[in-house]
Structure formats: C-alpha cells, structure tokens
Amino acid sequence: MEYNELLRRKSKILSATILLCIILRSVVNGFFVGFQEVLPMMGAGLVAAGILFFLSSVVHPVVMMYLMVVMMSGISVALMFLFPSIVNFMMFFMAMFLVVIYEDIRPIVMQGVISMGCMLWFYYQFPNAFVDISPTDTTAMAMVYIFSGMMVYISMCKLTREQFVMLEKAGKESQRAKEAAEGLLEKIGVSVDILGNTSSKLNESVDVTGQISGQIAVATEDMAKTTATEARDAESIRAMMHEGSEKVHNVAQQTGEMHEASVATNEAVVAGGERVHQLNKEMDILSDAMDQTADAVSSLNEQMDTIIGILNELDSLTSQTNLLSLNASIEAARAGEQGRGFAVVADEVRGLSENSAEFTSKIHEILDEVKRKTDAVTNEISAGQASVSACSEYAEAVDEAFGRIRENNEQVRNRAKNMKADMDGLDRLMTDAMENVDNIGTSIHSSSEAMEEISASISNLDSNIRGVVEGYNDINRITDELKHTRA
Hints:
The protein is mainly α. 93% of the residues lie in helices and 0% in strands.
C-alpha cells in the first residue's frame, strides 16, 4: 500500500474514533445530566465527525493529517470555552494519544506543542475549574507527561519510518527480481518456439526418409523375385542340357531354346543392374537425409543447453529473492508488533520465490526428458546410418554379381551359336555348357542369398526409421508441453 493511501485510511479511522468518543461521552453524561442536555453535543459531534470523514476522502492525505490535528485541538478548545472542566481539560491528553496513529513525527510534535500551550493557558484562564488540583505540581507533571510521551512517540515514529523505508526497498528489489524472471521466461518461450520449428523440419525429413525406405523395400522385393526366377531358369537350362546329351537329334532345338532363355536372362540381368544402380542412388539420398537429421538434432541439443543456462540464472535470482525475504522476516520479528505488516509482505515475497523455484524445477524435469528423448533419437539415427552403409555395400556386391551373370550369360549365348555352327563338337560344347550352367546356378544362388540379406537389412532400416519417427513424435509432444507450460 502507498504512503498517501495509508495516511488516508488512518484519517478515516481517526474520524471514526472521534465519533465513537463523542457518542460514549454523550451516553455517560446523559446518565448524570439527562439525555436531553447532551443531544446538542451529540448532534454537533456527529456533524463534525461526518465532515472529517468526508474531508478524509477528498483532501490530500498529508494536508488532512495536519487538519486532523487542528480539528482535534479546535474541538478541545471549544469545549473548554463552553464547559470549562477537568474532563474537557484532559481532552488535550487524549489528542496526544489519538495523533499517534499517523506514526509521523511532524503531527506528534505539532499536537504536543498545541496541547502544552493550551493546557497552560486554560489552567490560568479558568482557575475555578481546577480547585481540586494542586496548581504547581499538577501543571508541571502534566507538561512533563506530555513532553515524555511526545519523545517516546517521536522515537516510535522514527523506527517505524526506517522499517517502512526498508520495506519499500525490499518491495522494489522484489519487483526487479520479478521483471528479471519475466524476461527469462520470455527467452524460454522464444527457445521453445525455435525448438518446435526445428522439430517440425526434422519430422518432415524423417517422413521423406520413411517413404524412400519403403520404395527401397519394394525394389528389393522385386529383385528377390527376379533372382528366384533366374534360379528357376537356370535349373531349366540344366535340365535341357541333360536332355540334349541323351537325345542328340534334338540338340538343335534345345540349343535354340537355350539361346532364347539366355536372351531373356540377359534382359533380366540388365533390368536387375539398373535397379541396383537406382538402389545405390536412393541409398545416397537416404544417407544425406540422415546426415541432415543428425545435424538438426545437434542444433536441438545446443538450444536445450541455452535454455538450461537461462534456467540456472533464474534459479540464482530465485535463491537471492528467497534469502532477501528470509532477512526481511528476521527484521520483522525483531520489530515485534510494529513489524507485523512487514512480516506479511516478507512471507509473500518468500512464497513467490518458492513458487518460482518450483516452476523452474518442473521446467528442468521437462528439459531432462527432452534431452533423454534427443539422445535416443541420436542413437536411432546412428543405427540407421550403419544400416544404410551396409545396404550400400550389399548393393555394390549385387552389382558385381550381376556383372558376372552378364558375362556368363554372354558365354552361354556364344556357346549356343557355336553349337548351331559345329554339331561335331556337340559333346564338348554340351560339357562346357553344363559347366557354364553350373556356374550360372552358383552365381544366381549367391545373388539370391545376397538379395535376402539386403532385404533383411532394408527391413531393419525400415524399423529403425519407424523408431526415429516415434522419437520425433515424442519430441513434438514434449515441445507442446513446454508451450503449454509457458502459457
């Protein structure tokens, strides 16, 4: 509460107190002199108290403080002129007690001087009203009491003023700490937005990687089917070669069929080579995408380190605020009853610092979870990169195998042409053809095994990519939680 507003409330309280005193005195006097006699005094008191209460709301608080001193002194002087008595004489004492509510040295000194001056003047002006009082002792002691009380009140006001200054200073420091905390929260919000944008870009890259992986899996399956077909064709060629050795008169026909089969095999091998070449290109694209993903995750880790640094600064400010509130509570305890309001403010400051510490602790927990998920994503990316590298090696091996198949198939075609031209070397050509067919079967079998391994690796790669997608979904979820926490 501001100083002027506090003075305004004190003036209203003092107005209500004066009204209560007038009512109580009127009631007491009514029992002795009759209520009809005190009704005018009660009415005048009500009007005066109402005017004071109204002025407390519209007049400047400091001006009203001095006006209250003048009004109380004026009421006491008026009563002494109208009804000189010891009771009205003691109202100057009461004014000293009432003015203490302002806890300000200036009105207390002002009221003390007015009370002592008025009491001396009225004491000698109306001596008959004080016949029961010793002229010298009573007057001197009254002045001593007023002066002593005034000095005590001045000391109390000075201490209260010092406490008010300290409380105001603590409030300003708390406001600065609050502004610093709000600035840190704004920085955290910016970092969370950057984290969300980065996560969105990474998620798009992972989706593209998943599509490429699916295409590679389909291509691998097609190649496996082609290899199986080639294996069956090789077995057919071998069977035909055996049949040709048994039935020489059908050699020409069987040789033609073998030539046609060789042409089909060559076309299949060429198609397979092109698919393997395309697979190599897709693997290169996949490798580049995963490198970009790894870079994005590294950037995410740097952003998280920045957020953690900001939170550490916020923790430091919160600790300082908590220490300040503890010191304020100690000072309030020392001040006793006068420091009760100060202690309430200190408790509020300490509560705010504890809430800030709890809030930063929750943010630390969320960031730790994000860090753990990011590390898991990094591990998944590393595993995916290893699988892609293995797939590239397998693709190169398949390409070499297809090269050998093409060479062997060319030999088969040449053998078939020679068999048509030279029937005399049929037995030798048949033997060579059988050997070549065996080589083809072995190569195709090796190619089939290689394709199975490639298919298994592609399946593992697809599973790893799914794991990466799930990891980035977790990152998106955590980012949303951070945004909701900031809001």
